[in-house]
Amino acid sequence: MNDYELIGSPGCGSAIVEMALRITGTPHRLTDLPYLEPGPGRDRLLKLNPLGQVPTLVLPDGTVMTESAAIILHLHDASPQSGLAPAPTAPERVRFLNLLFRLVGAVYPTFTYADDPPKWTLAGPAADRLHDTVMERRATLWREIEAQVGKPHVLGERFSALDLYVTVMTRWRPGKDWFAQHCPNLTATARRAEEHPHVAAVLGRHFS
Ligand SMILES: N[C@@H](CCC(=O)N[C@@H](CS)C(=O)NCC(=O)O)C(=O)O
Questions:
Q1: Mean pLDDT over each residue of the chain, to the nearest integer
Q2: Would the CB of 35 count as within 6 Å of ligand 1?
Q3: Which residue's CA is minimally distant from atom 12 of ligand 1?
Q4: Could you state, in order of their start, the residue ranges of all structural domains in the chain?
């Protein structure tokens, strides 16, 4: 049987999935790509995932997954003992699901639209306005999430995949200083997650 193949890129959301693969003990191999750079790597990625996004995960049977939250839930289904998600009957399950989808459905797309605004609208004032409004929306979303974050982990006593998202995404724009100033709870959970050996190993690979 083949291993899972994670197609990713340093510093990207693929780090979250890489952490989850390690925590669940799922045999896998890593294919790192400069995902925006034209070439054979991107050509293959586009065949697997028409949006050309990472993480893209190829399962041992060849099935392709292109959404990090779906991947997390799949890995949890395959290895529930690893604790990536609360069990369906656990009281914190609802908060877990809502925050997971808030992160991927609302926060993550702000990077899609604010990273390179002229891709989506006319360069110049229209692009500047798109950038600013998307950044404002991102700040609103983070403040909303900040108000729901527990101690020492996002769900409180219990570590979960949400801590993986937070520890990676708080390293992205607007950056650690902004989070330290405006989102101290998120900053504290991110620092706590870094103590997890698999999280630390993946952060070392992606952000050093
Ligand atoms: N909804 C996807 C978002 C993935 C995503 O946006 N990845 C970024 C890299 S961190 C990307 O590939 N951006 C390039 C693009 O959107 O063209 C997920 O949760 O996995």
A1: 97
A2: yes
A3: 53
A4: 4-82, 93-196
